[in-house]
Amino acid sequence: MTPSAQQIRSQMNTISEAPGKVWFWELAAAVIDADRCVRCGACVAACPTDSIGIGSDDLPRLVKMCTGCSLCWDFCPRGGLAYEATWAAANGAGEVSWSEGAGGEGSPSTPIDEWLLAAGPNSPGLGAVVELMAARVRRSDTLHEIGAQDGGVVTAILLASLAAGEIDGAVVAREDPDHHWKGVPHLATTAAELMEAAGSFYNQTMALASLDVIAAGLPAGARIALVGTPCEIEGISALQARRWRRGSSAVEAVVLTIALLCTKSFDYHKLMVEELSERRGLSLSDIGKVDVVRGRMIVEHRSGARLVDEPVKDFHRAALRGCDECADFLGRSADISIGSVGSGAGYSSVIVRTQAGARAFDEARDLLEVCELEAPEALARLDRSDRAVALATLQRPFAAGGSMFVDFAEHEAFYDGTDRAPNWRK
Question: Would you say the pTM of this structure is higher than 0.90?
């Protein structure tokens, strides 16, 4: 007679748990309930049983039984992933470590201006660099009329790669149809969808939770690009570097990564609803553009009139707390890093980091005006500032080129007694 599920469970009750298992609720205690989640979606992409979904609060939650495989913990950039190890894995940058270890900046083992030296002698501290420039879509091109942020370079690269058959789609952010100015992830498969998604949102979108190519109508062997914040690019870099059985997330489908330069991301409700709508009395439906430029939060009306022009620090109460632990403003794990810092008005700063990035940029070159970067030192300066905050906040040792993973017990010991310790109350 075949035993029932209840009989099997009863027999298993006397069996000891396999050593080293980490469950989703341990990730939840250490990251989500400790208010450190950066909403990258790496845990969703890593789960081989598709047991992790997204709750109504835009945070990861368990939707099926957890098997204790530990992968959600391993690939979380605020949990088991030593995110700086992905920089070397992605582009071969050398190891740099800090002697003081947890909780402080310490003394770098190489001079600060050589921190993760680039491929060339003229770009110290920026990570691997194949080409460094400023660019924007040509004024004769219709792209600059569709609301693209800064120079429209990201959209141009994606359109060119799609037209050339180099990719079959791209994970981008588009507006939630039910919430004005809330970005949600979307695997776009047509030029029209890519152009519709042009522009920026300042909330994290759990982009890595959108790698199901079959659900998007693409074949199993599809190739896609991923546009995301540095932590999202770190997540995909780590997942691709450590192969394992996946669920519905086609991690291997990502062949091009574009990082958006980022010092902080925001909680949608805290930024758009509380800060802009409630505190400043703005109608979200009237907003035509939101941008962070030279340390200022700029909000414009659909007519082009400026509604808000304030220091971005005035909005830090809406920022994700876990962003304070990130030393990767520049997106060092990406094929291409793009943002506004260091370039003139209307242009984007572009750091091409890999040969895959160079091929993608070359496909789009005819669509772009390219010139020398106006203030490359601004990139290094903001990177140093961002890194100082991260290394003062991060409680574990920091070493680019070191081990990629941190055991849960080690993490718990590093954070014990701090305001970021695991929260077991929930």
Answer: no
